[in-house]
Amino acid sequence: MLIQELIVENFMSYEYARVPFKQGVNVIGGPNGAGKSSLLLAISVGLGQTSTERSRKLSDLIRWGQDQARVTLILDNSKQGNRRPESKYNKDQLFLTRVLRRDGKYFFELENRVATKQDIERLLGKFGVDPDNMLIIMHQNMVEQFTVLSNLDKLRMVEEAVGLEPFRNNVVQAKTKLTRILTQEESVGKLLEQAQQTLNYWREQYEKFQEKKQLQLKRRFLDRELAWAEVERREAIVKALQANFNKTQQVLGKIEDERQAIIGELDGQQSQQRGLRGEIKVVFDERLDLERKIAQNQSALSLIEQLLGEAEILESLPDKSQFKLLRTESLREMLDVSQQQIQKATAQIGANQAKLQTLEESTEKISNQALDKRVTLALLDFKRDRAVKEQENIEKTIKEAQENLNTALAKAQESGERIAVLKSAGEIQEEMGQTDGHLAALATVSEEIERQYESYSKLYLELKEKAQLVAENREKTLEEVKTRLAAWRTVMEDLLSRVNTEYQRIMSQTLATGEVQLSNPQDIETAGLEIYVGFKGSKPVALDAYTQSGGERTTATMGFLLALQQHVRSPFRAVDEYDIHMDPKNREMIAKVLVAMIKDAAAQYVVITPSQITFAQQDANVIAVQNLEGKSVVREVAK
Questions:
Q1: Residue 531 is inside which H or E element, if any?
Q2: Of 160, 264, 344, 571, which one has the fewest beta carbons inside 10 Å?
Q3: 3-class SS of residue 30
């Protein structure tokens, strides 16, 4: 049981009334306009409904001439087993009040303390009551309205009434999650596609950047290669100069060797000339001696010849003495001796002359040879001087070349370690020119490109991983949807199978046939509750607002509601004037079935009916309502 008592103050036609309720069926009866439906309306307002079929504003429910109305429900919070419905309050009764004010301000009070709508919803949730569910509280004409609801809405009301909405919520949540994931997958897919396009652009730029870096590396390598090529060139220059220097030094050595040899030969020739000059002098002295002897002998010969002439003159004289004869002979002998000596000397002079000539020829020959040697020596001296100067120049050039080499080497070492140079400097410079041209074409390519590429690469990989994760989540969620849908379908088919059996039993008592089944069970979005009914032996057809009569619709609807009762989790249910269009037989049968079904259930049922006599013979708590002079009063409470 939910409500022990209803207290209304200045509510609609009630000035003040207290209406006690009991477990089981509570029948509120009375003539039209007595205020029966107002009590059910007060209950629904007290339970938190915000709109009613009687008015658009709750302030319209305040009794005329009053500023506010109060609806108080005394809820049964007694222990059920070992715990109370609302364990927060350790008491058997809870006072739930709703205050309606003319100025449009409405508020709740729970145990005389102001409470929020959410507080009340949580409270009723613990009691298992949803006042907005049509199957829990059916106001006037709602039985008719139930028949015009879509099969989907009917099914959802049943789910909420029997407490199976968590199964639908699980499916809906999974499908919502799937939709969100699909949306996310589509969004990620678009982002991934955009990232791919952007990445492709930046990849092209990055490839250009890499090409630029490679060209810059190549350019630096070419600088390095050119630097070491310059080193090699200068080393070659130094090496060539050193070779030339060595060659010049060898030439100088040869010249010096030749000079020394010639000098030695000249010294030998000078010695020979000195020897020959000494011999010539000796020969010349000998000739002088011979010439002197000849001259002396010629002088003696002339003197002798003169003396002989004089002697011959003397001999011609008559006086020939012995002395005279001796003297002439002596002179003649002396003449012969002088002539012989002259001839001998002359012969010796000829030999001397020949020897002198030979010596002079030898001297001249040696002189000529010495002259040639001196000429050769002079040439060698000239060559030596030239070679020395050349060597000095080479040494100076080598020094400059070595300095240039050291400078080039230092510069090359700054560029990096030595490398083997396989190209000429011209080829390297030509390649450098081509590289510079390519670099000029890539001048606008900056290092920012690398950061952008890395950033978009990272983003793309993250999106790809996210897309993969979303795809995995999609598969998992699809499986989750299938599992939850299967669970929902199982409980719903089981529920409706049992409801269908009871519905057929109830309808058979009205001499009708019926069936309850689940339509489109594979799709929870379009799945619905189909109620079929056939009266007077006709084939069961769908229950709707056009096929059956008003009484038939009401009977079939109540039959379904009664078949559903044992599965409804709410401890409180109410229906207003369901039996208006029923014939007396069906009205009596439905009342009997209702009381029988509620009797053994721990439920509380409020029935609003103008024909309370229908329940007169039933085990029900009957509450009579009358309207006296514009005021509704509860006049009688009978069992």
A1: strand 528-535
A2: 264
A3: coil
The answer to whether the beta carbons of residues 108 and 102 sit under 8 Å apart is no
| Type of residue numbered 62 | I
Q: What is the reported pLDDT for 116?
A: 92
Contact 280, 359 (CB under 8 A): yes
CB–CB of 407/233 below 8 Å?
A: no
Between CA 460 and CA 457 the distance in angstroms is 5
Query: How far apart are alpha carbons 117 and 470 in whole angstroms?
Result: 39
pTM, whole model, 2 decimals? 0.58
And the tokens for 269?
Answer: 């020739």
C-alpha span between 438 and 418 (Å, rounded): 26
Angle CA 514–515–517, to nearest 5: 160
User: Helices (H), strands (E): how many in the chain?
Assistant: 10, 15
pLDDT band at 50 (very low <50, low <70, confident <90, very high): low
- Report the 3 state secondary structure along 459-517: HHHHHHHHHHHHHHHHHHHHHHHHHHHHHHHHHHHHHHHHHHHHHHHHHHHCCEEEEEE
- pLDDT-wise least confident of 198-207, 348-357, 377-386, 503-512: 348-357
Q: Give per-residue pLDDT as tens, 573-627.
A: 888 877 777 777 777 777 777 777 776 667 888 888 877 666 766 677 888 888 8
Residue indicated by tokens 């499908």: 175
Task: Give the three-state DSSP class for 540.
Answer: coil
**Region of 117 on the Ramachandran plot (φ > 0 left; ψ -120 to 50 alpha; else beta):** alpha
Q: Find out whether 482 and 534 touch, Cβ atoms under 8 Å.
A: no
Q: How far lies 365's CA from each of 194, 205, 368, 557, in Å?
A: 111, 95, 5, 166
CA-only gyration radius of the chain, Å: 76
Opening angle at CA 8, ends 84 and 631, nearest 5: 155
Confidence of residue 81 (pLDDT cuts 50, 70, 90): confident
DSSP E strands in 135-227: the ranges are: 137-138
SS (H, E, C) 89-146: CCCCEEEEEEEEECCCCEEEEECCEEECHHHHHHHHHHHCCCCCCCCCEECCCHHHHH
What backbone torsions phi and psi does residue 154 show, to the nearest 5 degrees?
Answer: -60, -45
Question: How many residues appear in the chain?
Answer: 639
Backbone dihedral region for residue 130 (phi beyond 0: left; psi -120 to 50: alpha; all else: beta): beta
Where do runs of H (alpha helix) occur along 510-599? 550-565, 584-599
CA–CA separation, 591 and 595 (whole Å): 6
